[in-house]
Amino acid sequence: MSKKIALACLFLLILAGTIFVFKTNIVLAQDYGLNETVQEIDAFKDQNPQTDINFIQTKTGQIIGTALSFVGILFLILVIYAGIMWMTAQGNEQKVTKAKDLLINSIIGLIIVFAAYAITAFVGEFVTKNILG
């Protein structure tokens, strides 16, 4: 019974996180007039071929930002799940060890993702400044 409750909570956290990410992006786009800005960029893009590179950079940045948002949500869910496992272990050392391992592995995964992002940002900046620019 407790596994069903834990899975239901996990599903609700994923659903809430996904709704939050997409709803936040829509609200920001409306609040700051990004739709008008995109139309201005599209109009300017036809006049200057250099903006094609900036457009690609912007879209790539948006995709990476969305992916990192999902990784953050996944990390939060794993930490909460590990905490629930640890709290409900009731002194069982195997369950406590499993919860600790899950927590440590999720932190290691988060570090790997941020290191990959840092490397990608560095290489991308180098390529755009030295090769394309």
Number of helices: 4
How many separate structural domains?
1
- Poorly predicted sequence stretches spanning 5 or more consecutive residues: 27-31
Q: Give the helix/strand class.
A: mainly alpha
Mean pLDDT: 75
Strand percentage, roughly? Answer: under 5%
Specify the helix fraction band: over 70%
What would you call the shape?
elongated
Main β-sheet: number of strands, strand sense, barrel status?
none
SSE run: HHHH
Measured between the Cα atoms of the first and last residue, the distance is 60 Å
Number of distinct beta strands: 0
Tell me the radius of gyration.
Answer: 21 Å
The gist of it:
By secondary structure, the chain is mainly α. Helices cover 89% and strands 0% of the residues.
What does this molecule look like?
This protein has one domain. With 133 residues, the chain is mainly α. The longest helix is centred in the last third of the chain and has 40 residues. The protein is elongated and about 60 Å long. About 4% of the residues have low confidence. Helix content is 89%, strand content 0%. It contains four helices and no strands.
Task: Compile the SSE list and pairings.
Blueprint: H1 2-31, H2 34-45, H3 51-87, H4 93-132
Helix pairs in contact: 1-3, 3-4
Which key terms come to mind for this protein?
mainly alpha
